[in-house]
């Protein structure tokens, strides 16, 4: 199983370089492979570490008070990627239970997460390429988000999320590991925003 | 066929609101349905209009000289979306020919596009959810990008693009309409960047 993310951070300020560099320092990347270019930074490694690193990056940038957006293209099990020992983790161990069971486990994981005090608003799309179960899993995931308390509203092509950043990132993490198929390809297109002036209007 | 995009523009400057509002004015949205919230703007309509609007938005913001990124989640044929008469277009009319034929047509469309003089660097992922042909179409699309002269490099989970913005947006447009299946679900996760300081270093 190969899992990772291409992440980009967009602080809407003239001092964006410093906000990005400080936020990058907040990520614990000890267990991750990291590669950066002018468009995004690749993180490869276990899914727990991936989502913890993204949450730290987002929260550190959000605390500056600037309107800041994190975008991530997250993927596991892509048939075009080789397996990588760095990615080994719990997901490889088990088979998936029925949808209702996975939804309950996912909700429990979100509820168990300590809050951060940072508000996060965003949206994401879940893709299960190459699998005929695609829409069942997508609808099952949306049900889970409602139960977990981070569902904001349905949108075309994606689902809007809102809540404490710890709950939002854990919900994305659970969407990533508990839906689709255990060994199959799952991809997320994630956008998480902080301090938008549109919300203050 | 329902087609549209959730788009967001990220100008990395204290004056981001004005850059966004000016760029939005540059989009021709006469044939599009537009809905905005704090995270993204929905455009629904024919695919030619969608990509032309995104190109205008990007180029107008890029011309300010600020480091600016456009992100778009683009989708057609999603089984969760109702058909919409506003989206009718050439794609609905025809069946797909063999891959090599579609690649040649796509290359021709990119080459025929008048240049803008604006450089664009970015990356995108093509998803064909629910279809077993997923990876064949993805690899076929990457081959087309190489032939069209906008392929920059392979990356994990996505393909990096570079070139004149007109060629880059037309390549994305062609990827959207000529790959996957004619009536099936195709989604793009698109990031296009201008004026990155990383490229000036």
UniProtKB/TrEMBL annotation, chains A, B:
Q: For this UniProt entry, which residues form the secretion signal? A: none
What region holds the Thiamin/hydroxymethyl pyrimidine-binding YkoF putative domain? 4-81, 120-198
Cross-referenced InterPro entries: HMP/thiamine-bd (IPR015835), MTH1187/YkoF-like (IPR029756), Thiamin/HMP-bd_put_YkoF (IPR011522)
Q: Which residues bind thiamine?
A: 9, 41
A single Pfam family it belongs to is: Ykof
Instruction: Provide a Gene Ontology MF annotation, just one.
Output: thiamine binding
Name the chain's protein: HMP/thiamine-binding protein
């Amino acid at each position: 199983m190969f899992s990772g993310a291409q992440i980009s951070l967009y602080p809407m300020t003239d001092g964006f370089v410093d906000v990005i560099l400080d936020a990058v320092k907040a990520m614990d990347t000890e267990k991750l492979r990291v590669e950066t270019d002018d468009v995004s930074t690749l993180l490869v490694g276990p899914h727990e570490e991936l989502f913890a690193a993204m949450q730290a990056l987002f929260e550190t940038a959000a605390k500056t008070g600037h309107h800041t957006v994190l975008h991530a293209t997250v993927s596991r099990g892509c048939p075009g990627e080789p397996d990588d020992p760095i990615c080994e983790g719990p997901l490889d161990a088990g088979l998936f239970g029925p949808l209702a069971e996975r939804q309950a486990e996912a909700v429990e994981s979100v509820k168990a997460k300590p809050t951060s005090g940072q508000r996060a608003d965003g949206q994401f799309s879940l893709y299960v390429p190459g699998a005929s179960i695609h829409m069942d899993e997508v609808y099952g995931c949306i049900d889970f988000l409602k139960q977990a308390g981070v569902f904001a509203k349905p949108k075309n092509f994606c689902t809007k999320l809102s809540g404490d950043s710890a709950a939002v990132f854990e919900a994305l993490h659970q969407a990533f590991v508990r839906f689709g198929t255990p060994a199959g390809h799952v991809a997320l297109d994630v956008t998480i925003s902080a301090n938008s002036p549109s919300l203050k209007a």
